[in-house]
Amino acid sequence: MSMTQQAAPAVATPPASGPGKEKDGRTAERPLALRLLARPEVGVFLGAVAVYVFFLISAPPVRDGSSMANILYQSSTIGIMALPVALLMIGGEFDLSAGVGVITSALTASMLAYQLSMNVWVGVFVALLVSLAVGFFNGWLVVKTGLPSFLVTLGTFLILQGVNLAVTKLVTGNVATDDISNMDGFDQARKIFASTVDVGGVQVKITVFYWLIFAAIATWVLLRTKYGNWIFAVGGNKDSARAVGVPVAFTKISLFMLVGVGAWFVGMHQLFSFNTVQSGEGVGQELLYISAAVIGGCLLTGGAGSAIGPVFGAFMFGMVQQGIVYAGWNPDWFKAFLGVMLLGAVMINLWVQRTATRR
Question: Which of 283, 341, 345 has the alpha carbon at shortest distance from 317?
Answer without folding.
Answer: 341
